[in-house]
Amino acid sequence: MILPIYGYGEAVLRKKCEEISKDYPNLKEIIANMYETMNNAHGVGLAAPQVGMPIRIFIVDTEPFADSDDVSKEEAAQLKKFKQTFINAKILKEEGTKWIFNEGCLSIPDVREDVLRHDTITIEYFDEDFNKKTEVYNGLIARVIQHEYDHIEGILFTDHVSSLKKKLISKKLKNIMEGKAFPDYRMKFFSKKGR
């Protein structure tokens, strides 16, 4: 089922999310709905708070990045097959060179900004079958994970930009809060009636 994506200004996007147990109600259905919602919106990641649930789940599917001219053949092959569910994730280490990439977010449509992040991360998490894993990721995969991880910590990519940049995008952010954004996917806006 395709769920509405919560827009900038919704309180759930600022919550530090709660850990869940493997017997969390309808867990498989929630994850399936999240993938369907993300794919419908042509995203590469989606976190549970973006669909109104303050729980520590996010999903990543970097296949859309595989066709980019900016990636090597080797990285394109990795991006094409990387699809993972992260439950109760904890980033243990961020290291390596910091690099800039122009990020966007399904909760903040039509806003893109350069964000500086570490190249390599070590992350501990449970997969959708509740197998515990510790993995090291780098490049674009690490970046998407960091972006989605921020969501379960109540952080948005716009929090990483300078105050000048924030001032420049403030009108766009206000429009999103007022429901004046028109992406080609369902959204739930902060100020819309019938909440």
Automatic annotation (TrEMBL):
Gene3D superfamilies per UniProt: Peptide deformylase
Catalysed reaction, written as an equation: N-terminal N-formyl-L-methionyl-[peptide] + H2O = N-terminal L-methionyl-[peptide] + formate
Residues holding Fe cation: C105, H147, H151
Entry keyword annotation includes Hydrolase: yes
Domain of life: Bacteria
Alphabetized InterPro entries for the sequence: Peptide_deformylase (IPR023635), Peptide_deformylase_sf (IPR036821)
Cofactor: how bound: Binds 1 Fe(2+) ion.
GO molecular function terms noted in the UniProt entry: peptide deformylase activity
One of the Pfam families matching this protein, by short name: Pep_deformylase
Keyword Iron attached: yes
Positions annotated as active site in the UniProt record: E148
Cofactors that this protein relies on: Fe(2+)
Keyword terms of this UniProt record: Hydrolase, Iron, Metal-binding, Protein biosynthesis
Signal peptide: none
Family per record: Belongs to the polypeptide deformylase family.
General function of this protein: Removes the formyl group from the N-terminal Met of newly synthesized proteins. Requires at least a dipeptide for an efficient rate of reaction. N-terminal L-methionine is a prerequisite for activity but the enzyme has broad specificity at other positions.
Entries under PANTHER family matching the protein: PEPTIDE DEFORMYLASE
Name of the protein in its database record: Peptide deformylase
Gene behind the chain: def
